[in-house]
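Weekly structure sync, notes
Attendees: PL, DS, HV (note-taker this week)

Item 1: YjbQ family protein
DS walked through the input record. Source organism listed as Pedobacter cryophilus. Sequence as pasted into the shared doc:
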Amino acid sequence: MKIFQQNLTLKERKRGFHLITNEVLAAIPQIAELKTGLLQVFIQHTSASLCVNENADPTVRQDFEMYFNKTVPENDPDYKHDYEGSDDMPAHLKAALLGCSVTLPIRNGRLFVGTWQGVYLCEHRNYGGQRQLVLTAWGE
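Item 1 (cont.): predicted structure, written out as tokens:
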């Protein structure tokens, strides 16, 4: 069994859903050494999240943003955690719904995902800043 771990700092991005698959792969080239394994991508933040979805049509990412903004609106008067801005509590809720990690299969040194699948950084803050990821790959 081989285990590799890398940190990845993502540049600040505007609010929305962003494909980061290529950045993740560039940060952990050691997966090429694995015939069979797994890659876990973990985000070290509570107001951004990760998910796997459509990697070709950018309107899917726009629709994700629209849906989550309707589902978890800003400026709800019932929010108690509001001192960091109107986007902060909704960002925490969206991150909880989507999750802080994704796990992807590795086969023959490459990600073994569907043709149209990619890893999204789901940035839920208007000004979230850089985001820190921990990439852990393991396998044979």
